[in-house]
Design goal:
heterodimer, A: about 270 residues, mainly alpha, flat, B: about 270 residues, alpha/beta, 6-stranded mixed β-sheet, about 25% strand
Chain lengths: ~270, ~270
């Protein structure tokens, strides 16, 4: 005979206890994550200080001068990315066009830009264009080069975004009697925009770092200031560290903003 | 649209849709082989047939979502000839747009605009295409959302609606353009079984109240209830057509009999 005994039954847990335990596990995971992160940052700083080769006094001295480059770095980024978005919109329209002339022009633009190094393009805008009578200051030359470069990459992003809108959307809009322009403006673009928003955020973050390249033209942004002070006083370690931290903090801040934006978009209708 | 004919006794009017000699190739694949079809005002025509028989293509050729290879489509007196070589010409495209203004289409997967509310979906085309003032468009959209039983969902985004509700909003969206004929392309095929009924009820009401419609469907019971005429297609041809009781219960053609036998078995 088999007797069913009470102690053989699986134990029943209170649902609230389970919830609390799961919550605790989540929080302790986050706490450990944060502690390790902060530990690594502190460890890096202390490690560098312990080498005895870092001069804190010098950092305090040149820090403000380098930090003053931040607004210029941000200016370069914001203007470049804005122009790049306009260029990418035009480029994507070209790449999506049935017109072979427009499509070829857009395709040529993307190929030329993506096939050559960004640093070559930056130097070209500043050093080569004057031979054709186009003389630009360092700042507009740098912004122009970055904008055209990012415009080409974002052309492909925008194109992919438009193509990612399900074809049924276009068909439904056409079946309602919309013109092709209305289909694009009212139905396809708003959905494509939502699809490419995360990618645009990534491009913005990448732009923060690539904008450092315009230091070579003498634009007085963060890296230029770090380089000038570093070579002048033969203390490039300190100045480059400061510059690195500035870029790092900027990208972290942007990543946070991007995450929040994406969460808001996701919370929307989709 | 809201005709005052007694239920179940729609008096058929003039021909609204006249398809003549319609041929469609996809590459070398001959999908429609000379279709002639006339649909009269207030008539509900159901097209049945196995998948690949060309019924969906026929429907999509009527509003030129597919450009037919040859033949012509006439909707409410506007005749457009297939013109695959000049499909992109401005004149041809404008004619197609005029055809689309006279037809409303429902899709298997609804294709509601996800970035607009139910109401937004229903006022978009009336405002942008028909240039109806917003207040009036909203009033009409609310009326048609009421017709499909979703007045309370007017401010919901499609993502928050069930499949059946989405298809009903899509019906309201099509009705809001006041088309001469509604084209349904397997409107319940993407739905969970328990949601099919609510869509079919709406469609049946529309059929009985005299809405002209052409429906591609696999729902035989529904066809039997709501159709004035059933059309059986196979291999790009219309094999047989007639009143539902004739086609579904005592078909004359052997191919129709074979299809129905196999269909009813599964």
């Amino acid at each position: 005979m088999i007797e069913s005994r009470v102690e053989d039954r699986p134990r029943r847990y209170d649902i609230e206890d389970v919830e609390r335990a799961e919550q605790r596990a989540r929080w302790s995971w986050r706490a450990i994550f944060a502690v390790v992160w902060i530990g690594l940052v502190l460890g890096l700083g202390i490690g560098l200080a312990l080498t005895g080769r870092i001069d804190p006094g010098f950092i305090a001295e040149v820090g403000p001068f380098i930090l003053e480059g931040t607004p210029i770095t941000l200016l370069v980024c914001v203007v470049s990315i804005s122009l790049a978005i306009i260029l990418a919109t035009l480029g994507a329209l070209g790449r999506l066009s049935n017109n072979p002339v427009l499509n070829a022009i857009a395709s040529f633009y993307v190929s030329l830009i993506r096939g050559t190094p960004l640093i070559v393009q930056i130097l070209f805008w500043y050093l080569a264009l004057p031979q054709f009578g186009i003389v630009l200051d360092a700042l507009p030359a740098g912004i122009g080069a970055l904008a055209f470069n990012y415009g080409a990459y974002m052309t492909e992003i925008f194109r992919a975004g438009v193509e990612a809108v399900p074809p049924g959307q276009r068909e439904a809009a056409r079946a309602l009697g919309m013109t092709e322009a209305q289909v694009m403006r009212r139905i396809v673009f708003p959905q494509a925009l939502r699809i490419v928003t995360p990618a645009i955020g990534n491009e913005f973050i990448a732009m923060i770092k690539d904008s450092a390249l315009v230091y070579i033209l003498g634009v007085r942004e963060v890296l230029w200031r770090a380089d000038v002070t570093g070579t002048r006083f033969f203390r490039s370690t300190e100045t480059l560290l400061i510059a690195a931290v500035v870029y790092w903090v900027l990208t972290i801040a942007l990543s946070f903003a991007q995450e929040r934006l994406e969460r808001r978009l996701r919370r929307g209708e989709r | 649209m809201t005709a005052v004919t007694p239920p179940d006794a729609p008096q058929l009017g003039e021909a609204v849709v006249r398809v003549t000699g319609l041929e469609k190739y996809f590459g070398r694949n001959h999908v429609l082989r000379g279709i002639d079809l006339e649909v009269r005002q207030r008539e509900a025509v159901m097209i049945i047939g196995r998948s690949g028989s060309g019924k969906t293509t026929l429907l999509r050729c009527i509003n030129f979502l597919e450009e037919p290879t040859s033949g012509s489509v006439d909707v409410d007196g506007l005749r457009v000839d297939a013109d695959p070589l000049h499909a992109r010409s401005r004149r041809h495209r404008e004619q197609i747009r005029q055809i689309r203004l006279r037809t409303g289409m429902l899709f298997q997967d609804f294709n509601l605009f996800p970035h607009m509310t139910a109401l937004g979906n229903c006022i978009e085309a009336p405002m942008r295409v028909r240039r109806i003032p917003r207040a009036e468009a909203v009033e009409r959209a609310d009326y048609f959302l009421e017709v499909v039983g979703l007045a309370d969902k007017r401010n919901e985004y499609p993502a928050r609606l069930s499949g059946g509700q989405k298809q009903r909003v899509a019906i309201a969206r099509a009705l809001a353009m006041e088309p001469k004929v509604l084209l349904f392309d397997e409107p319940t095929s993407a739905l969970d079984p328990e949601l099919i009924g609510e869509v079919l009820v709406v469609m049946e009401d529309l059929a009985h109240s005299g809405t002209t419609m052409i429906v591609v469907t696999h729902e035989m019971h529904f066809a039997n209830e709501a159709a004035d005429r059933v059309v059986f297609m196979e291999e790009g041809e219309i094999v047989e057509q007639g009143p539902p009781e004739q086609i579904l219960d005592s078909p004359r053609e052997e191919r129709t009999q074979r299809f129905l036998r196999r269909f009813l078995k599964t």
